[in-house]
Write a structure and sequence with these properties.
The chain is α/β, with parallel strands linked by helices and 358 residues long. The chain is built from twelve helices and twelve strands. The strands form three sheets. An eight-stranded parallel beta barrel has the order 4-5-6-7-8-9-10-11, surrounded by seven helices. The chain has a two-stranded antiparallel ribbon with strand order 1-12. Helix 9 packs across helix 10 and helix 11 packs across helix 12.
């Protein structure tokens, strides 16, 4: 997976590279996400029965071939002309889930239409940022429902952009032919108050979660929940799943790594809803560790977009296949015939890490 990053750095211009590869401020969380997975050691078991093993997992009423999903990433045509359509075709070819961004540069109807009838594809979900206008938001939800999306993922950890110094130093701008196509005609954001120039007047709240829960028949997941208390509040709202995410280190710098947050979140929800996790996942061993810590599935973001930049849909498909192959190897060598065999006792904490901290 990392080989794609090196090649993408050579192929993308400074503008696109700053957007896809950068994080917030000093990029401490961006680096820590990766380091946290490496700080966990596997304690493999031997001589376990491995015949008839598999990577299947149950998620929101579906049986998935494996626990890999593509996270929502905006403006993918900035990486490659195939854009989100290429990522969707690759995900379908590999049986992976796809979460399409509200800020997609390809219309949701085109993406869904290309893959929804593929019987071997993974889940097809739509990620949404509420725009502060319920009429506009509801119309977008209805479009996703009509197109065949099977769940909504509400991102809740970005009421404003992070301080993305790398983008600012580069003078990031979107090319004329790339835009957030679903937000054309969006009403202006409400303004009021002094904090962040008044943008927080439109910040998503628990009341908005309750409204969205009641406005759609689709399962609703919240993305960006990192605190156990917020997990318990989300359960009270009747959400169907949580994504443990710090936005890939792109919003609040020095937010804790997702590998540290995940076990505390798992303890808080107690299996009531599925947990997914993203942030820094680059190897099949990372996926196995995430499952052992309580995740039902994982999402990858930057790695697949950089593979898209290098080789289009074929690059994304190859990256997914690499990750799945590595997961199967890690399972076999750890004594796990199925993902249900991956529990916390599979992990050994490196001295000085914080897995066991309160």
């Amino acid at each position: 997976m990392d080989d794609y990053e090196g090649r993408a750095r050579e192929m993308l211009d400074a503008n696109a590279w700053a957007y896809f590869a950068g994080g917030a401020a000093d990029e401490t969380t961006l680096r820590a996400n990766r380091e946290a997975w490496n700080a966990l050691w596997l304690q493999p078991r031997v001589l376990r029965p491995l015949a008839h093993g598999h990577t299947r997992v149950e998620l929101l009423g579906r049986t998935l071939a494996h626990p890999l999903l593509l996270a929502p990433v905006a403006y993918q045509r900035l990486a490659h002309p195939h854009g989100e359509l290429g990522s969707a075709l690759a995900a379908a070819a590999q049986g992976a889930g796809l979460v399409l961004s509200t800020q997609s540069s390809t219309p949701l109807e085109d993406v869904a239409g290309a893959v929804r009838d593929d019987a071997q594809r993974g889940p097809l979900w739509f990620q949404i940022y509420l725009q502060g206008d319920r009429g506009f938001d509801l119309a977008l939800v209805r479009r996703a429902e009509a197109a065949g999306f099977e769940a909504l993922m509400l991102t809740v950890d970005a009421p404003v952009h992070g301080a993305r110094d790398r983008e600012r130093r580069t003078g990031f701008r979107l090319p004329a032919d790339v835009s957030a196509v679903h937000l054309h005609g969006a009403p202006p954001m409400p303004r009021g108050g002094e904090l962040c120039g008044g943008l927080l007047q439109a910040a998503t709240s628990w009341d908005d979660v309750a409204w969205l829960r009641g406005a759609t028949r689709l399962p609703l997941l919240l993305k960006g929940v990192m605190h156990p208390d917020d997990a318990r509040l989300a359960l009270a709202q009747g959400v169907d799943g949580l994504i443990v995410s710090n936005h890939g280190g792109r919003t609040l710098d020095t937010a804790l790594p997702t590998a540290w947050a995940l076990p505390r979140m798992a303890d808080a929800v107690g299996g009531a809803v599925p947990l997914l996790v993203d942030g820094g996942i680059r190897r099949g061993t990372d996926v196995l560790k995430a499952i052992a810590l309580g995740a039902r599935a994982v999402l990858i973001g930057r790695p697949y977009v950089l593979a898209l930049a290098v080789a289009g849909a074929q690059g994304v498909a190859h990256a997914l296949r690499l990750l799945r192959d590595e997961l199967e190897i890690a399972m076999a060598l750890s004594g796990c015939a199925t993902l249900a065999d991956a529990r916390r006792e599979l992990l050994f904490e490196r001295p000085g890490s914080l897995l066991g901290a309160p």
